[in-house]
Design brief:
15% strand; aspartate carbamoyltransferase (chains A, B, C); amino acid binding (chains A, B, C); 38% helix; Rossmann fold; pyrimidine biosynthesis (chains A, B, C); Asp_carbamoyltransf_Asp/Orn-bd (chains A, B, C); 12 helices; globular; transferase (chains A, B, C); alpha/beta; 9 strands; homotrimer; 315 residues
């Protein structure tokens, strides 16, 4: 498989698929991310990437993801070439291929962060140039840095990656995030899926978990699941996936909500995660609870991306 | 009042309302702004904010204001996370609250500059996070850095803040700028308002001036006012405020224009200010006059914002 | 002529027209560009422009050109104030003149890179302010940095500027690029024009070449021309120039295509250039040929712009 696991982080040439990272590489990366969280303004470390340039080439806007990458580069003193309108990019509009665009941008930047609406675009980009490419989401394809930051958050909050029971809640059919996460964690976790009927976890992921010997089951009892898991990973029911079927959307929405009652059922040492943005699937009353890890999770995206930039730029 | 005057600049946690600044704080800030105007490329001072990141989170575009803030951060070596499409920000479009967005951005940036279309948005943002927030204009609410740069310009050009007579000319009803300025200067200035009938200064500001013992009067004699004031502050009649009533707009426009005749009536030591952009309310023939201070005023925005960033980031 | 050749690069105040550069200045600039291509991340040279700010003020989007300039500034440690929506720039939309906008931006930035849809806009901007202005394309007017990077590519690839035969192919009527290049090279090159009838090189450029004693001829034999030139400069037939006349566009398109057969006819020491983006006027099969210089040409844009920034900022 192109981009499959290499012998270690030092040989990593790009970040295109979650499957590129084996257990050893994850742990190595998380140690670097820990160090990144300690970088202070004005310190020597904060100029580590001085003189390097990162291009954020976004064919669809995703301000949150873009700012997280640009923050990571900025925190290490690197420069940023930013565009969130690459879709209207005059060259693309004139019919230029993705490969030509990427080769041109490689002329200006040392590393390219690509967001695209087509599955497989990141792999095509990585194959077209020598410089490293980071996949910041390619349509229904992958979003590996989200899976990395989720896994890092579990490691960082719970202090371990093994013997963890994860409850995935919400839209498990369409959520690229939970699907990638399940793939990344499949070697060392147990899963419980809690989802309304129409957005249940799809069979491909279940088969992947089976193939890796990971345990999973489905449940409709959110309170029960909350009481037994170490991580309760809530997701948003994505209205935009339902198209005209707004009645189905309304039926799904609000079925499984994390509120004070759910928090009360949870273990003291458990955490609540969410990829954000949220609507009302986590009640604001939960925010003050120290087990509400979702804003720390977003912040961990900064540290994981700092670590990835350091690794890929071989600094 | 939330955010009201604190004991001094060193305790300032954010910049949300003009009322946060008392006389002592203004003077302290202006001394810092003076120093900022001396920062040279390549100097030690020009890396003062190295490793800090500022997010310019703009829910409505204001390129001028955004560039001024980003210039201030850049001049001190800080990094910039920029978005002027926060309104279409995918998360906001999906229904995320301002508070959630701000908390997420706080994870990436050390300071947030917010432009929003809703009065009070900056206060909500400042209350949601620990990191400092600067209000870059929140709808019909406040635009305190504009008031600061205006006041700094008066201090910088005239060498004092007391015993100054200010003539405010133009659209005094709708101009957030002149309203904020009147509030900031109310303790130590005399005012003359020169405005077409339909865009006269509103009663709330007049009452605030009265309450503070500030002198004000209204006049229709621009030449007379020009001859007596120290500062002639011209503003644009804002077409966009008139909606369909274009005949009213046309009636107001051009009633009070600053031209060579007005300049000739002014004292040698007086100055002309304007928040820009201008249309024809100041004739281009005035630009070469040394008393035309409006482009210096725009530049002072850079120095004031550099000073604010330094103060709020506690460097 | 305003902005015509000055006595040397050290007196250059802006970069508005290709005609500002005489032979000596070009050679001096190319030596600096060579040095720029050696600047390494983390080196002393990579902080050369630390504390300087460049504003990319784009009234029409051109992501490629913008990123190239921003990359150049970033590679030398300078800061960037970026906008590609200056056309919707709230101030411009409110009726502010270009001169006022430029004067305001001068208050924030040390150098302004202007892209505008109106011929002559860059000259107006340069006349309005003291700080240097670089023309990044002003409508049907000039795009001097493209001509500079093209000429630099010839110098860099062939090792000389004299005794070079250039074949210009494709849309020679509308292509600002080839027209500017012909102007810049008119003192020391021979030209062969290969173009479909409706997009032939216009008489004004032919007259300019005649006036400078440059040799030129027209040909319909691409293979023959390929075998004799040192530089085969292919261009895109620009669909957007044909408006409704799509049949004319289709008739032109594909008449002269560079493919393996053309490459086979070329000399071993010749190169193929293209300003990019390309559609199918150069077959992808040519990309791997070492004589395919077009992506190196794009990269040279970075080095030329780094050199220009250094020269204009007098560092």
């Amino acid at each position: 498989m192109p981009g499959a696991c290499v012998s270690g982080l030092k040989d990593l040439k790009n970040c295109v698929e979650a499957q590129q990272f084996d257990r050893a590489m994850l742990e190595e990366l998380f140690v670097i991310a820990d160090a990144m969280s300690e970088v202070k303004p004005g310190s020597r470390e904060s100029t580590m990437l001085q003189g390097f340039l990162m291009s954020t080439l976004f064919y669809e806007p995703s301000t949150r993801t873009r700012l997280s990458f640009e923050g990571a580069m900025g925190k290490l003193g690197g420069g940023i070439l930013s565009t969130e309108s690459a879709g209207e990019y005059s060259s693309a509009a004139k019919g230029e291929t993705l490969e030509d665009t990427i080769r041109t941008v490689e002329g200006y930047a040392d590393i390219v962060v690509l967001r695209h609406f087509t599955a497989g675009a990141a792999r095509r980009a990585a194959d077209a140039i020598e410089s490293p490419v980071i996949n910041a989401g390619d349509g229904p394809g992958q979003h590996p840095t989200q899976a990395l930051l989720d896994t890092y958050t579990i490691y960082n909050e719970l202090g371990r990656l093994d013997d963890i029971k994860v409850g995935l809640v919400g839209d498990l059919a369409n959520g690229r995030t939970v699907r990638s996460l399940a793939t990344m964690l499949c070697n060392f976790e147990n899963f419980v899926f809690v989802a309304p009927e129409v957005v249940k976890m799809k069979d491909d992921i279940k088969a992947e978990l089976d193939a890796n010997g990971a345990k999973w089951r489905e449940s409709e009892d959110l309170l029960g699941v909350a009481s037994e898991v170490d991580v309760l990973y809530q997701t948003r029911i994505q209205k935009e996936r339902f198209g005209d079927r707004l009645d189905e959307y309304e039926a799904c929405r609000g079925v499984y909500t994390v509120d004070e009652k759910v928090m009360a059922a949870m273990k003291k040492t458990s955490i609540v995660m969410h990829p954000l943005p949220r609507l009302d699937e986590i009640a604001p009353e939960c925010d003050a609870d120290p087990r509400a890890a979702y804003f720390r999770q977003a912040r961990n995206g900064l540290f994981i991306r700092m670590a990835l930039l350091k690794v890929l730029l071989k600094v």
